[in-house]
Write a structure and sequence with these properties.
alpha/beta, Rossmann fold, seven-stranded mixed beta sheet, 6 helices
Length: 222
């Protein structure tokens, strides 16, 4: 499933002279202690989202799931618990990946792997996944068009794409802006259709006290 020439996130985010390097979750790269605290906060927040995305995906025993911007790995592990044959978490942060692997090992889960990479250059073979999802990471993608092209490449024919983002209001700032407005969600649906996916659409789901936008589509038959 892995490509021979795996790409890290540094090539996708440019040099330090161009802008500060950020990971898939929008935080500037800090030391291991900061990353551990950040990973723990993500872990506690993502349980409900992981259950929701897995339910919407309708996983079965033959599925291979790719989780882009996996963070501490909650959604990838949920995929295995829901019956997927294998799950692969992708994240540009080595510290986050170490945390995800450690948590997975402590839970004695097999069939879950974690690889360093970015949406724009997935370290995976073509047509190697039946489901690709991203939970609250799309708004951090450097090049959404390229990320969608890569997503289509790694999906098998008729594979499912699910992109989950917090619903935000126009003009929000700071962390409150991390997500998609209605306008940006519509733009994403159009971009997905332009990339060659079929049945692109969106819906609003409730997780806890928050509304989330879930954009779905399927890879073409061939």
């Amino acid at each position: 499933m892995h490509r021979d020439n795996e790409h890290g996130a540094d090539n996708e985010h440019g040099s330090d002279n161009e802008h500060k390097h950020r990971d898939a979750h929008g935080s500037e790269r800090h030391g291991p202690a900061h990353q551990a605290v950040f990973a723990l906060s993500m872990l506690f927040c993502r349980g409900g989202m992981a259950r929701t995305i897995a339910d919407l995906a309708g996983l079965s025993a033959g599925d291979v799931v790719v989780d882009i911007g996996c963070g501490p790995g909650a959604a990838a592990r949920r995929a295995r618990r829901e019956g997927a044959a294998r799950a692969v978490g992708i994240d540009p942060s080595p510290e986050m990946l170490r945390f995800a692997r450690r948590l997975t090992s402590l839970r004695r889960m097999d069939g879950v792997d974690f690889l360093e990479g970015a949406a724009e250059s997935l370290p995976l073979d073509s047509a190697s996944a039946t489901v690709v999802w991203a939970v609250q990471s799309v708004h951090h993608w450097v090049d959404p068009g390229r990320g969608l092209e890569e997503t289509r490449r790694v999906l098998e024919p008729r594979g499912r794409l699910l992109l989950m983002e917090r619903a935000v209001v126009p003009g929000a700032r700071g962390l409150a802006a991390h997500g998609l407005t209605d306008h940006r969600a519509d733009e994403l649906v159009r971009l997905i259709a332009h990339t060659g996916f079929a049945d692109a659409g969106r819906q609003i789901v409730r997780v806890g006290r928050r509304n989330f936008v879930v954009v779905t589509a399927s890879a073409p038959p061939s």
